[in-house]
Amino acid sequence: VLYNKQNVFDNEEYFKNKFGFEPSKYVLYKSMVGDISDNICGVAGIGRVRATSLVNKYNTFSNYSTTHFDI
Questions:
Q1: Is 60 exposed, middle or buried (0-12, 13-18, 19+ CB in 10 A)?
Q2: Mean pLDDT across the chain, nearest whole number?
Q3: What is the pLDDT of residue 48?
Q4: DSSP line for the chain
Q5: Pick from 36, 24, 35: nearest CA to 61
Q6: Residue ranges in the chain whose pLDDT is less than 50
Q7: Who is most buried in 22, 30, 32, 64, counting CB within 10 A?
Q8: Which pLDDT does position 47 carry in this prediction?
Q9: CB of 19 within 8 A of CB of 29?
């Protein structure tokens, strides 16, 4: 169950329809987009649409970072 100030997302299908990805990927999404109220900086140049696309493509930050950074 994910709580939001306006909503309670208790249904995984509802969450997927609203955000475009599974609830288990929300932390990755939030780390890319950021959130001023939670003091999460996010990644410069990545907004909601691009973050959703990247989350669906790479599934984990490790998959994304090994593809885009020389690690």
A1: exposed
A2: 79
A3: 92
A4: -EE-SS-EE--HHHHHHHHSS-GGGHHHHHHHH-BGGGTB---TT--HHHHHHHHHHHSSHHHHHHHHS--
A5: 24
A6: 69-71
A7: 32
A8: 92
A9: yes
